[in-house]
Amino acid sequence: MFTLYLLGIDSCLSMLDSAKMGVMDFKWGQKLFGGSYELCNTALFVLGLLIAIPCNFKFGLILWDRWDFYINNWGLLVIAFLEVLSISYFYKREDRVNKAGSTTCLIVDAGLILSMVISAFVFVYSDLIMDSSNVYIRVLI
């Protein structure tokens, strides 16, 4: 049991150290904390403590369940559409227009935006019915 405790403390300190280095590598991090690693460690510790407080109560399970639901549904959808948009629209757009033509690119871009709107419509107007063991999504169209 004590070994598991030490492993948890060790992994917590390594995550705190990597977050500290990630913050302090930026100019805004050095400006915000005045170059003090101790102050940055303290701020990250307090932030982690505030995030973890709801987990100590019954509300924490509900909070993380909702967070997981929205990240798995909305987050994945938004990230996928942003990746497709960035690859198909912004990356080498001039080459694409020169090879395929502006009309074709306009049709593809309109289809991409239309698919985003339709997907958002389905998610917004869907009804979440939670059972004790299952989660069903009924589309209200």
Concise account of the structure shown:
The chain is mainly α. 78% of the residues lie in helices and 7% in strands.
Structure description:
With 141 residues, this protein is mainly α. It folds into two domains: 2-56, no CATH class; 59-139. Helix content is 78%, strand content 7%. The chain has helices at residues 2-24, 27-33, 37-52, 58-90, 93-100, 102-124, and strands at 126-130, 135-139. A two-stranded antiparallel ribbon has the order 1-2. A hairpin with a 4-residue loop joins strand 1 and strand 2 (135-139). Helix 4 runs antiparallel to helix 6. The longest helix is centred in the middle third of the chain and has 33 residues, at 58-90. The radius of gyration is 23 Å and the shape is extended. The model is unreliable at 129-133 (pLDDT under 50).
